[in-house]
Amino acid sequence: MIDTVVLDPNRNVPRVREHPRFGATLHAEWIKFWTVRSTRWSLGLLFLLGAGLTTLICWAAVGDIATGETGESPASFLTWGLLFSQLTALALGTLVVTSEYGTGMIRATLAAVPRRGSVLLDKAVVLGGVLFVAGVVTAVAGYLGGNLFLENEGVGVALSDDGVLRALLGNGLYLAGLGLFALGLGLLIRHTAAAITIGMALVLVLGNLAYALPGTWGEWVAKLMPGNAGGTVAQIVPFEGSGFTPWTGFAVFTAETVVVLGAAYVTFRRRDA
Question: Which of 33, 44, 28, 46 is nearest to 95 (CA)?
Fold first, then answer.
């Protein structure tokens, strides 16, 4: 005779632990993001370089700008600080990942959130959101500070002028994109100095050197470099007139960033922490 086992419905049965919800993991990533001192230093430097240098260059060169000796539109100088603020966006995006690998914190992160796609998504949302807001605030501050000197010389640029609002919003979009681009590089390389160096080389150094390449193919290589393609959306009047239109360039830059993040995700899933 076979005994029948009856399970007591009131008995406490251990449950399998559910994966953390997106809101909980996002909040944890937010706390982690702001507890690192490099975050505040990077964002402070981003604002100082972006808004401070824009205001400074407008003050220093306002006479030449007003007389046309610079050969550029006055509006070009109202986003001048972007050239330097993008460096801090690259650095911050890299450090979000590589600092965890450097300290071994990534093991604790993956133990708490085993789904690596969720980890990458949380980091991307927090980093992109913060850099977007910081970029817009920096661009507005730089515009207000620099335009004050231009207006005193009668060459000010109004918010309603063509491309101004787009550039202020675009500054946030571009810096957020750069941060995500650097995030992908950080996951691929997992070494802070190497990832920052490669990111700066792709965005700044090679982007400028590409203009020296001969022929039509050289022009296209220059257009397709991440900094040249994406940066036009953050400029009221670009210094270089041979690139893509602002939104087309940003679309190209977005596609490049997605490719880098996709490769980073695949690598992130396959590698050990």
Answer: 33
Whether 216 is in a domain gets the answer yes
Residues 3, 143: Cα–Cα separation, whole Å = 83
Domains identified in the chain, total number: 1
**What's the token pair of residue 169?**
């919003």
* Own/partner pairs, 217-222, CB within 8 angstroms, 24+ separation: none
Do 179 and 92 touch, CB atoms closer than 8 A?
yes
Please state, in angstroms and as integers, the Cα–Cα distance from residue 271 to each residue in 71, 79, 131, 189, following that order. Answer: 52, 40, 28, 12
CB 19 within 8 A of CB 114: yes
Cα maximum dimension of the chain:
106
Radius of gyration (C-alpha) of the chain in whole angstroms: 23
Q: Is residue 97 part of a domain?
A: yes
Identify residue 259 by its one-letter amino acid code.
V
CA atoms of 63 and 42, how far apart (whole Å): 32
Q: What angle do CA 36, 271, 34 make, to 5 degrees?
A: 10
What is the mean pLDDT of each successive set of 10 residues along the chain, which is 273 residues long? 47 55 88 90 95 95 90 90 92 94 88 88 96 97 96 92 95 97 96 94 88 82 91 83 83 97 94 75
Comparing CA positions, the residue from 144, 178, 160, 150 lying closest to residue 70 is 150
Which tokens belong to 221?
């290589």
| Domain presence at residue 1 | no
* pTM for this prediction: 0.89
Phi-psi category of 209—alpha, beta or left, where left has phi over 0 and alpha has psi -120 to 50? alpha
